[in-house]
Amino acid sequence: MSKVTHNSRLEKRKLRKRKRKKLLFILIPFLLLIAAATVYGASLVNKAQQAVNESYEEDGREGNKSDRRPDNVDPSEDNVSILFIGVDDSEKRNNSEHALSDALILATLNKEDHSVKMVSIPRDSYVYVPEVGYKTKITHAHSYGGSNATMETVEELLDVPVDYFVRLNFNAFVDVIDALGGITVDVPYELYEQDSNDVKGAIHLLPGEQTLNGEEALALARTRKYDNDIERGKRQQQILKAIMDKVLSANSLLKYNSAIEAVGDNMSTNMKFDQMKSLLSYATSSDFDIDSFSLEGSDLWTDAYYWQLNEQDLVDKQQLLKDHLQLNQNDTSTNSNHSETATQAN
Question: Are residues 149 and 270 in the same domain?
Fold first, then answer.
């Protein structure tokens, strides 16, 4: 096999990994935690509060705030940012303490117009990681220093403060759907897919409307061997709607309790319950608006495969987020020194 052919196949494999959209896996458990309490009231509020309290994790920053903020923020009054970190720390990998971040999404929330902007950061993005002082894949930041190192890296990259983090593993997605008793989805075609433990062909689905358990829903959401990213995005939206329909129609308090427990068992966050609860106003706003973006770039082959970010697109996304957070020049610190270091590293 020629080197060119080998590299071409590797490029396609990396491209498939890079294009996996993990938004669904990260946001569903978080939304459930906020929204479920509105259905049954106080009984679930207490359950949700317990889950958040048990998931609370200090972020290690002085004063529990970003260095790019002059003062602490209050999500009930201020525009804030939340970094969603999706990790794969399954027992098979045995790496819960040093898991790679399999998905990174920075969400900025504007209190004035109840809008949310989300920027997805490809896991292979070649960026400067302050924790180690050199450029590497952004997915490695979490393995070097956990959520704190990941927040620092994203702040360095996007030049905006990261106020909060929510870290979830994929077990949360599976467990929540199982706790709800499965979801009803129209499977578009027959498929064989691996399960959450990477057992190839473990999931076999036939076409047609049916009830899927958590593992089956995860397989349907992840697969792209049979169509493309656009169609997968549509499937994920379908699954998202099916989950929310089940949440809203569930008539069992036990199901809600089990779902919230599933989230709590698989989540870590530096948000307090009252801070998280204040975000409910976004979901209940009549003019709620959410926009999703990704960082553009191109393939880069050096000692390994990387995603080389497009400089102009990065600048544009930085400004987009700053405008949405309504930051002025004094609200963020510059990253010129690290940027120069990163540029020289290229």
Answer: yes
